[in-house]
Amino acid sequence: MTTYKYISVLFLAVSILLVGPSCTDVLDEPLENEFIAEDTDYSQTENMVLLLYGAYAELYSLQWETFPLISVRGDDVNAAGDQFPLIETDEFRYDRNFWMYNSTWLNLYSDLLYWHGAMEEIEKYREAGANEANARQYIAEIRVMRAFELMYLAKLWGSVLIPNASEPSHLFNVELSDYQTVMQHISMEMDAAIPDLPSVRPNQRADVRGGVTRYTALAVKARANMELGNYAAVVEATDEIIGSGLFVLEPDYYQLFKIPGKLNDENLLELQYSDFGQASGTRTRYLWDFFGPSSWTPAVSGAGGGWGFFEPTEKYVKFMLDRNEQERLTTSVLFTPDGIAAIQSDAAYQNLPDWVSNVSPDGDVFNNHPRYNFLSGKHYLPSTQLTPGRFTYGENKNFTCIRYAEVLLLHAEALVNGASSQVLSATEAVNQVRARAGLNNLPSVDLDAVLDEKFAEFAMEWGIRYFDLIRYDRTDELNYAGRTFSEGDRYLPYPLEQQDILPQIREAANEE
């Protein structure tokens, strides 16, 4: 049996400041950042799969601060609450001392180094006689996990280090790769991984249900090539996913983000958590408290709330009201009475539809709180869906990362940029997404229509809106509610701690 040990190293040291009394317990947890195997008998080849299980556990242990930092700068989301540096980040005033920058950098690099260690260990099992096909598949799955997180490192900081080994010290000798190079690297990595991955939906896998498949890798490849402007490669990847006939849009958009949406036929990648259907005992969970209400009256008495640090914008709410978007708006946004009043204070929105309410379809009531006017419905689990005996906010909910709806709209986006497809037209792709939302078909689509559809569909999801606006230099949209975006705001500054440790980062920061 393999024994795993994690050690800290000097240049990945963590400096995390406490951010408030509701969060201190989770911030005290140590960072795990290097993979080491000891006393391993590689002839026991049946143990090789444990490395794959460990790789998924690392993926699912995404620290809570990483997602908000990725997502918060778009015009779909406000940083709510009393976290001043996060609010400043949302408004494009960056502080390289902000603990969340360094923590997210460490979170992502820790995962990358861990996965390199896992791949290195799998290679040793293969050399000792383990099943060749299994070894190749496990490495391919881990490559996709690695690419998924490496992409966000580049989206946050632009030029980053691409690890090629598990030893943290090797990063001292790795040159910075610019954004385009990182995306090219990811695309090539997916080309290498795809042949070794199963051609099934993630929820069809019998060995690791919900795990990475060929289509997950194709979706990551499509994302990378969209950033490169290689629209033909985007369509090549999305054509294969669409043409497989394996994926469908979940008819119930509201439930897609809740317990019935776990391991859905729409999902190409999701972080999985469970309370194992038991009222107490072992559980795995994401820290949904970050998104949860600080004041509510849950339908199930005693259900816990959260911190209220992540808020949909009034701009997004009004955009959806203008489109008469009931299903996606009531799914994406939880209203408080003050939020409704704020919308109605605009004369154009005095008469709101009856379905705009501070009561969710499941009977949870969202009360006023000084931190926010709205909450994210995509990160909400109704209290009625909690396992009886469980009361922690969001318990047992999965975290969706890539959906088939995104594949369809990436496909449409590439087509309106000049690519061609024999599988599905841009208009057909957009109208499939619209039909699920209860909207009429469009007779034709252009880039404006595609980006509007993505705004409506993916609000609060993984910074998609922000990165869309950046990609097309439509940053005027980010100048709302007193914000002013400039070209220098595209990427975050390198964390000060990393400048002090890594000479490549220090040199790059001095050139900014």
From TrEMBL:
InterPro entries: SusD_RagB_dom, TPR-like_helical_dom_sf. Keywords: Cell outer membrane, Membrane, Signal. SUPFAM superfamilies: TPR-like. Residues 268-486 form the RagB/SusD domain. Coiled coil: none annotated. GO terms for cellular component: cell outer membrane. It is found in: Cell outer membrane. Belongs to the SusD family. This is Starch-binding associating with outer membrane. It comes from Cyclobacterium lianum.
